[in-house]
Amino acid sequence: MTVARSVVRLDESWLNDRSEFQRNFVHGLRNPIGLHIQYRLDLLEGEPDPASGLPPHRVHGEWIPDPELHVGFPGVVHGGLVSAVLDDVMGRTTMLLRRWTVTGRLEVRYRAPAAAATPLRVEGRMTAVRRRVVTTEGRLLGPDGTVVADARGTYLPLTRELEQMMVERWPGFAAYL
Questions:
Q1: Domain-embedded: residue 7
Q2: Long-range pairs for 147-150: beta carbons < 8 A, 24 or more residues apart
Q3: Which residue from 1, 104, 106, 131 has the least number of CB within 10 angstroms?
Q4: Is residue 23 domain-resident?
Q5: Which residues contact 68 (CB under 8 A, 6 or more apart)?
Q6: Mean pLDDT of all residues belonging to the chain
Q7: Number of structural domains in the chain
Q8: What average pLDDT score do residues 7-31 get?
Q9: What is the value of pTM for the model shown?
Q10: Pairing verdict, β 76-77 and 71-73
Q11: Residue 17 belongs to some domain of the structure
């Protein structure tokens, strides 16, 4: 059974990490080797999605992969980084619910090479919200709008054990629980 939840406009501290931690590899601004992607929320016109009950929305960010650091083949972004970026944007959509989640399942389809040194756009959205599970879709687009990769993900709430471990490793996380 799908449960409709209201989606709210979030300040930057929820959609993008503005804590003192900021070490996430994909979006953390204080990670010296991270990608530093920052996200924006678009609430779109239209009726709520019949499957999820959610109003149309999209979380998106931009990234220009470094041709020296982010490649698997000359001039082509490593597929693992493509997957990480898609996982991150889809996981950030759960922040619309003010819910911390972890990836339960991730499926990526690579459709075209992601060229390094070119602007790439990553987008994600929730497709269904259930009591314990959030499902999502994401895609990575080239500068001309070509779909480089698309993904589907399932995100689960943090377990008490994981929450406890995270607070032990960074006590400031308790304020976000």
A1: no
A2: 147/111, 147/112, 148/82, 148/110, 148/111, 148/112, 148/113, 148/114, 148/120, 149/82, 149/83, 149/86, 149/108, 149/109, 149/110, 149/111, 149/112, 149/114, 150/86, 150/108, 150/109, 150/111
A3: 1
A4: yes
A5: none
A6: 90
A7: 1
A8: 81
A9: 0.90
A10: antiparallel
A11: yes
> What residues does 130 pair with on adjacent strands?
none
Calculate mean pLDDT across residues 165-174: 93
Q: Does the pLDDT value for residue 23 go beyond 50?
A: yes
Tokens 């900021």: give the residue: 22
For residue 54, tell me if it sits in a domain: yes
The range of the structural domain enclosing residue 85 comes to 12-176
Q: Is the pLDDT of residue 4 over 60?
A: no
| Separation in Å, CA 87 to CA 25, 45, 53 | 12, 25, 22
- Tell me the residue type at 63: W
Report the CATH number that the domain containing residue 126 is assigned in CATH.
Answer: 3.10.129.10
Residue 31: both structure tokens together: 């990670």
pLDDT in tens, 34-67: 999 999 998 888 887 665 567 788 999 999 999 9
